[in-house]
Design brief:
The chain is built from 7 helices and 32 strands. It is mainly β and 523 residues long. The protein is globular and about 65 Å long. The relative contact order is 0.12. This is Endonuclease/exonuclease/phosphatase family protein.
């Protein structure tokens, strides 16, 4: 929700992912890093020091090196003084196991002097699969199939190898964790085929998991039901320990097919896709703006070589990706992901400021969100016009509620109804709100997504005198759709009874927004 960017200007146009449109051509461009940085090991145990060796053509006593957690703020820092070549040693004591980046930066402006280097901090724990049950992409009888579980083992050690323990004859398992083969006609059925897989390392440690594959009949729809999620990942998950594995576990536990990502970091979609063996696209990480990155993650192939972006003054306002759900039936899907500006925030204005509906709508206009959603919908028009042929989904953190939730029955903060533009305008464009299609009653099913870790208001937005009062809980994350889809179910997900901030570091659920998972019948 709390994006530290300014609202976009009007009249922006589409640009490719590699474009910096929306950033002033006169803006100073940072030089490419021309130094080097290496780490003493690609993997260290918690508590072991890590030694960084650096080289730069720009030595300075105030240059510095740092360890950063999954794209988040630095967690360890040390000076890298004047010599062109030098070393610095940093402690890993107290760090949570996970992936970290080592960076080498200039004194005042934090410009990178060398490309960052990734390494893993591990704990003295046994080899294990991330989950015991691993749902994989669907298969079709008589058609070649391939998937992988190779990225889902932790504390692997050296010489990791996989083998098949049991399962249908058509499935083979490679040493790298790949599953491949061609199912027979009699393998098709309503229940998934189960393959037990063992991982073993050089120390003789083993772990097993069961992969599940739904096999359809020859000529049948490959994906009759689509499990679509939108997820604001809260700075890539950097505020929760071990977030990447927790993100992966949620996707696997809920058998998700496609995810629209908001507030990813530069590596979120890439690292999730590599671990799962999925496909991904994401927008540029502009000037290290950790919550400017949008992404789409998919079990099924992405057709477009690059995402199409709707740029804003900083980062991207929205992105578009086309996915092939079923090449045999030419069944494609267009997915958009967006993140609208966060301030001023309507529920605070209504609940704390007691503004009238007219005043609330004026504040929405002032926030830039009304202009933003108009811009996004304008960019979507060609897709919306052809939605009967290729279904369209709009996912995102809208930072504003829905008019379907603020009604005379709900009487939120005393309001009888509010025509929030960010939900009215998508509806006028023919988009349907999947959560409200599956859960029509906003009283019995509020579907709140902001926020599972903020039960009380913590200040800001001009309402510091309301600190400690109940946080206005609301539904501000959406999965909209148009075309050949029918919403069957939709849920707001934040499992594990998250602890409130600031005690949220060890939460099982790694975000401050609930995710929304909508299940569709694909027509």
């Amino acid at each position: 929700m709390r994006r530290s960017v300014i609202a976009l200007g009007a009249g922006v146009a589409l640009a490719l992912a590699t474009s910096l449109a929306g950033v002033s051509a006169e803006a100073e461009v940072e030089p490419e890093p021309d130094g080097t940085l290496t780490v003493s090991s690609s993997r260290v145990e918690v508590g072991e020091p890590i030694t960084l060796t650096y080289f730069t053509y720009h030595p300075d006593p105030e240059n510095w090196v740092a360890l950063e957690s999954d794209g988040g703020p630095d967690v360890r820092r040390a000076l890298a003084p004047s010599a062109k070549v030098g070393t610095a040693t940093l402690s890993t004591e107290g760090l949570a196991p996970g992936t970290y980046s080592a960076s080498f930066r200039a004194k005042e402006n934090s410009v990178l002097l060398a490309e960052p280097v990734k390494f893993r901090v591990t704990a003295d724990e046994p080899l294990r699969f991330l989950t015991s049950s691993i749902p994989l992409r669907n298969a079709r009888a008589l058609a070649p199939y391939r998937a992988t579980v190779g990225g889902l083992v932790r504390h692997a050690g050296d010489d990791l190898a996989f083998r098949k323990v049991s399962g249908p004859r058509w499935v083979r398992v490679g040493k790298d964790g790949s599953l491949f083969g061609t199912p027979h006609q009699d393998d098709a059925g309503p229940s998934p085929q189960k393959v037990t897989i063992e991982a073993r390392n050089a120390d003789g440690e083993t772990s097993t998991a069961t992969a599940e594959v739904h096999v359809g009949k020859p000529g049948a729809q490959l994906v009759p039901h689509l499990r679509m999620m939108t997820w604001n990942m809260a700075y890539g998950g950097s505020e929760v320990n071990g977030a990447r594995d927790k993100q992966l576990a949620l996707l696997l536990d809920h058998d998700v097919d496609v995810v629209g990502i908001q507030e990813g970091d530069a590596d979120t979609a890439k690292e999730l896709a590599e671990a799962l063996g999925w496909y991904y696209q994401q927008t540029e990480d502009v000037d290290g703006d950790e919550d400017s990155v949008l992404g789409v993650l998919s079990r099924y192939p992405i057709l477009s070589q690059r995402p199409v972006e709707v740029p804003s003054e900083v980062g991207a306002l929205a992105m578009r990706t086309m996915i092939s759900l079923d090449e045999h039936h030419k069944q494609d899907l267009v997915v958009w992901s967006t993140h609208l500006f966060y301030e001023p925030y309507g529920p605070y204005d209504a609940c704390f400021g007691r503004l009238t509906e007219k005043e609330l709508i004026a504040r929405e206009d002032a926030s830039g969100r009304t202009a933003e959603i108009k811009t996004v919908l304008a960019a979507m028009q060609p897709d919306l016009q052809h939605a009967s042929r290729t279904p369209v989904l709009l996912t995102g953190d809208f930072n504003a509620p829905s008019h379907l939730d603020w009604t005379a029955r709900t009487k939120r903060c005393g309001s009888t109804s509010v025509a929030w533009p960010t939900s009215i305008l998508p509806a006028k464009a023919g988009l349907k709100d999947s959560f409200r299609m599956a859960n029509p009653d906003p009283v019995s099913e509020p579907g709140n997504t902001w926020s599972p870790i903020y039960p009380t208001f913590t200040g800001g937005y001009g309402y510091d005198d309301h600190v400690g009062e109940p946080e206005p809980q609301d539904r501000i994350d959406f999965v909209y759709f148009k075309g050949g889809l029918s919403a069957l179910t939709s849920d707001a997900l934040a499992p594990g009874n998250p602890e409130p901030a600031p005690q949220h570091r060890d939460n099982l659920y790694p975000s401050d927004h609930a995710a929304v998972l909508s299940v569709f019948r694909v027509r």
